[in-house]
Amino acid sequence: MVDSVTPILEEYSAYTDGQMKAVLNGRKNVGRLYDMMKYHLGWLDEGFNDCRAPRGKSLRSTICLLACEAIAGDRNKALPAAAAVELLHNFSLIHDDIEDGDEKRRHRDTLWKLWGVPQAINTGDAMDIVANLSLLDLDGSVKPEMMIEIMRLFNETVIELCEGQYLDMDFQCRSDVSVDEYITMVSGKTAALIEAAAAIGAMVATEDEDVIGRFKTFGRKIGISFQIRDDILGIWGDPKSTGKSAKNDIRNKKKSLPVLYAMEKSKRRAELKRIYVKEKLSDLDVARVFDILTEAGALEYTQNEAQRYKDEAMAQFEGLRLHKAPMERLQAIGRFLVERDY
Amino acid sequence: MVDSVTPILEEYSAYTDGQMKAVLNGRKNVGRLYDMMKYHLGWLDEGFNDCRAPRGKSLRSTICLLACEAIAGDRNKALPAAAAVELLHNFSLIHDDIEDGDEKRRHRDTLWKLWGVPQAINTGDAMDIVANLSLLDLDGSVKPEMMIEIMRLFNETVIELCEGQYLDMDFQCRSDVSVDEYITMVSGKTAALIEAAAAIGAMVATEDEDVIGRFKTFGRKIGISFQIRDDILGIWGDPKSTGKSAKNDIRNKKKSLPVLYAMEKSKRRAELKRIYVKEKLSDLDVARVFDILTEAGALEYTQNEAQRYKDEAMAQFEGLRLHKAPMERLQAIGRFLVERDY
C-alpha cells in the first residue's frame, strides 16, 4: 500500500521543489540568509555545498496540487500555492525546533543548533514571508478578488497554526488537558495548513463555493487523521521505520491522544497522572505507562479515530464530478495517512 | 520644536491604537496568546490587568495616516494600514528583543523575559499575521488590484526587514563593515517599513504612480535619517531624555554610523579597531573611543548625514499639490526626526 503512494509523493514533491527553488533563487543574496533556508530544505549541507538530504513527505503541497488537478484536470495553476504551503510548513518547523529545543531533524542538526537561536528565528521569519510572496505569484492566473480571498485564508491559517502551537506548549505545563482540547489544538497546529492546502488548490481551479467547501472539510479532517496516526507512531511505531526511538512520546511525556484517552478512561488513570507529573520518566515508568495504555485499549481507540476522520474526509467527494486519476491518488494518500508506518 | 510634534504623535497614535485594539479584540481568545501581545503594546500589565504603560512614538503609523491625509484630505481610509504597520513594527520588536537578549523595553520586562523564548517567538509570529490581516481590512475601500499591490509591497517590506536584521547580527561578528554596508543594513532594518508606511498611505489615497513614488522615496530617506539620529543619541544622547545609559552604544560595541565613519577616517582608526575586538570594554576603553570619535568629527559628519537624508526626503514634495495642514505636520515630523533628543 505504502509503495503505491511513495512514487506519487516523490513526483509531486519534485515538481513543487522546482518552484520553491525558483522562488528562493529569484531573491538577491543577503549573506547566508537564503542559504540557511536551503540548508533546512535539504538542498545545501552545513558548509553550503549542494547536497540531497532527506526532506519531509511534501504531503501538504501534494494535496494542494491534487485538489486542483481533481477539479480542473491540470495541476499547473496551483504550483505557486503548493510552493507557498510547503515554505510555510518549513517556516513553522524552523521555529518549532527552537521552541521545542530539538537539536535534530531528519538526522541533521537543526538550524538554531548550527547558527544560533537569533539567526534561526530571523530565518524562519523571512521564510514565512517568502511563502506569502510565492502565493502572490498566483496573481494573474486567478481573478484579483479570488487572490485576495486566498491571501486571507492563508493568513487565517498561519494564525491558527500559531494558536495551535500556543496550546501545544501550554498543554505541556498542564495536567488537565481533555480529548476535546486536544482536537482543537491539532486542528490548529496540523490540520489548518492541510485544509488550506486543499482549499487553495480548489480555489485556483474553481469558483464553485460548494466544491471549495468540500475540499476544505476534506483537508481539515484528513489533517486531524494524519496527526492522530502520528500519535500512534510516537508510541507504537517501529524505530526502524519512524527514525525515532521506541515509545518516544511517552518518554517525552507528550500529551498525545492515546495518553489523554487513557487519562479519561483507564481504571489506572490516577497512577498514569502520578507518573506524568514526574520531572523525568525512568524505563520502568515508560513500561508502566505503556501497559496502562494497552490495557485501556488506547491503540484501538486512537486508530478508530484516525479511520473515522479519514472516512469523513473521503465522504466529502461523494456526488462530485472529479477527474479520475488525481482522485485515485488523493484516495491512496488518504489510506496511506491512516496506515503508514513512518 | 519637539513640543509641537508631541501632540501630533499623541493624537494620531491614539487613533491607530483604537484600530489595533479592535483588530486584537476581534479575535477569539486562545489562552494568553493575545494578552501577551497586549502586554507588549502597553495595554496590560504582566498580570494581564488593564494599564497604560508607555509605548513607542507611533512614528510609522502617523506617517502612514499623514501621507493619506496630505493627498486625499482625509486620513480615515488609511486606518487599517496604519494599524498594520504598527503591529508589524511591534512584531519585529518582540523578535529583536529575543535575538538581542534585551531584558527591558521602555522600563518593562520584555516578553521573552516574562514568558520564555518559545512563547515569545510564537507570539511574535502571530502578531506578524495579525498585521497582515489588519492590512486586508483595506479590502473594499481600495480596488482589488491595488489591494494586491499593497499586500505585495507589505510582504517585500517585511522580508527586507529580515534581511536588514540578518546583516545587523552579522555585522556584530565582523570587523570590516563599511559605511555603504551600514546604509544597506539600516535601509532594510529601519527605513523599509517607514517607506512602506508612507507608500501605503499614498496608495490608499491615489492611483497616481508619480505621487506614490515620491512618498515611497520620502519614507525611505526619512527612515534612514531617523536611524542616523538614533545612532547619535546612542552615543551623545542625554540619559535623562533617552532612558538609556550614557554612551550606551559604545559600551555595547555597536557598529553604528559614527563608529564606522571613524573606522574609515580617523587617524587613530587602528587603535579604535583594537578596542572594538575586545570581549568587553572597560570604562577607560569607552572614554578612549569617545575621544577618537570626537576628534574625527564623527558627530558633525553623522548629524550632517541625518540632515541631508531629511532634506532629500522633504524635497520629494516639491511641485505636488497637497493638503496644507497634514503637510505641515509631516514637515514638523521631518524636523523632529533630525533634532529630537529622545
Our count of domains of chain A comes out at: 1
Largest interface chains and counts: A-B, 42 and 42 residues
User: What general outline of chain A do the C-alpha atoms trace?
Assistant: globular
Oligomeric composition of the shown chains: homodimer
The H/E string of chain A reads: HHHHEEHHHHHHHHHHHH
Rg over alpha carbons of chain A: 20 Å
Q: Please list the strands of the largest sheet of chain A in the order they lie side by side.
A: 1-2
The helical percent of chain A reads over 70%
Class by alpha and beta content of chain A: mainly alpha
What separation lies between the terminal Cα atoms of chain A? 13 Å
Provide the CATH topology of chain A: Farnesyl Diphosphate Synthase
CATH-wise, what's the superfamily of chain A?
Farnesyl Diphosphate Synthase
CATH class of chain A: Mainly Alpha
Largest sheet entry of chain A: 2 strands, antiparallel
Q: How many helices of chain A does DSSP assign?
A: 16
Tally of strands of chain A = 2
Polypeptide structure, described:
- 2 copies of one chain form a homodimer.
- Chain A has about 350 residues and is mainly alpha-helical.
- Chain A has one domain (about 1-340): Farnesyl Diphosphate Synthase, CATH 1.10.600.10.
- Chain A is built from 16 helices and 2 strands.
- Chain A has helices at about 1-25, 35-40, 60-70, 80-100, 110-115, 115-135, 145-170, 180-205, 210-235, 240, 250, 255-265, 270-275, 285-295, 300-315, 325-340; strands at about 105, 110.
- In chain A, strands 1-2 form a two-stranded antiparallel sheet.
- In chain A, a hairpin with a 2-residue loop joins β1 (about 105) and β2.
- The longest helix of chain A has 29 residues, at about 145-170.
- The interface of A and B includes residues 98, 148 and 159 of A.
